[in-house]
Write a structure and sequence with these properties.
Blueprint lengths: L13 H6 L7 E3 L4 E3 L10 H11 L7 H9 L1 H21 L3 H17 L7 H19 L6 H4 L6 E3 L1 H14 L13 H8 L6 H15 L10 H13 L10 H4 L8 H17 L13 E3 L17 H9 L4
Parallel strand pairs: 3-4
Antiparallel strand pairs: 1-2
Helix pairs in contact: 3-4, 4-5, 4-6, 5-6, 6-8, 9-10, 9-11, 10-11, 10-13, 11-13
InterPro entries: Cyclin, Cyclin-like_dom, Cyclin-like_sf, Cyclin_C-dom, Cyclin_N
Family: Belongs to the cyclin family. Cyclin D subfamily.
Keywords: Cell cycle, Cell division, Cyclin
Length: 325
């Protein structure tokens, strides 16, 4: 029997594609702060077995403790990282990316900076790295992705040519040994929300609120001390603290949500998350976004040269002069 044109069409719609994304099982609505998906969670029979494997491997793509020490010892590194995290989250909200996309972009950036250091004179280099890491993350997680120029629209001080970003993508990929698939808190968050609230009455709110807490925590370098599973559990507990019916949820009860969780790690992450929630009650000052400057291909921005000796004052002016407002 011959096939009609309708037989060649995919049966999936936009919503079903979003539900198939890894991380939070739906798109994140940055305007309402809610999660776009069905009203009820469903998990395969082997869900906990899969999460146990995630816990066993979650430290594979995390940074070493000496990376945090180096960041704290160099004020430029610390400020540049915080600014880049803010840009990544702002760009994700602008393009309505999944929360896991922003998380992965920050993960790639931290793992790259663990191996390399950007000179203070190259202030635009950190922006280029942030754009590149977000570009890689969106290719991993998003169904619909903007072009590289649109990715930087309304969010960047500088606008980099696509071929410049692609060159740096290769360097980042090589530095990360092509290991882009990382375990994130969003691998656990829906399952933990179900464990905290089996009735499902508050589950959607728990996921939405915990997602906001996790994304806010990316600004704090202390998050690098904590594993993804513990951060997810801690964020769900923090969200549960705001619901009277779930006030009994705590690190002691959360440890039973999945094999491999430990009470001390959840407690430590919970204390960090709780502090972040308190701090975020004060309006965070947004970074100043300057008018865009277009970085033309003629500018030398090979990242291999960024860790060489600083350029002379004359050379620096020459670089700036090649940029057009």
């Amino acid at each position: 029997m011959p096939l009609g044109l309708q037989d060649l069409l995919c049966s999936e719609d936009v919503e079903s594609l979003e539900l198939g994304q890894s991380g939070v099982g739906s798109g994140f609505d940055s305007d309402s702060g809610s999660i776009r998906s069905s009203t009820k969670f469903s998990f395969p029979d082997d869900a906990q077995e899969v999460l146990v494997r995630f816990i066993d491997t979650e430290s594979d793509n995390s940074t070493r403790s000496d990376y945090q020490i180096r960041l704290c010892s160099h004020s430029f590194d610390l400020f540049a990282r915080a600014y880049s995290v803010s840009w990544i989250l702002k760009a994700c909200a602008h393009h309505r990316f999944l929360p896991v996309t922003g998380y992965l972009a920050v993960n790639y950036m931290d793992r790259f900076l663990e191996l390399h250091r950007i000179l203070e004179e190259k202030d635009w280099a950190m922006q280029l790295l942030a754009v590149t890491c977000l570009s890689l993350a969106m290719k991993m997680e998003e169904t619909f992705i903007p072009c590289l120029l649109d990715l930087q629209a309304d969010c960047s001080e500088f606008v980099f040519e696509p071929k410049t970003i692609r060159r740096l993508e290769l360097l980042v990929l090589a530095s990360l040994d092509w290991r882009l698939r990382s375990v994130t808190p969003f691998s656990f968050i829906e399952y933990f929300a179900y464990k905290a609230d089996p009735s499902g009455k508050y589950a959607r709110y728990l996921v939405s609120r915990a997602t906001k807490i996790i994304l806010s925590s990316l600004h704090d370098i202390n998050i690098l001390d904590h594993r993804a599973s513990s951060l997810a559990a801690a964020a769900i507990i923090c969200a549960s603290d705001e619901i009277q019916d779930l006030a009994f949820t705590n690190p002691d009860t959360a440890v039973a949500w999945c094999s491999g969780l430990t009470q001390d790690k959840i407690s430590s992450s919970y204390q960090l998350m709780k502090q972040i929630v308190i701090n975020n009650n004060v309006q965070r000052k947004q970074p100043v976004i300057l008018s865009q400057q277009r970085v033309m291909p003629g500018v030398r921005i090979e990242f291999a040269s960024l860790w060489s000796s600083p350029p002379s004052r004359k050379r620096k002016h020459e670089e700036r002069d090649t940029m057009v407002t």
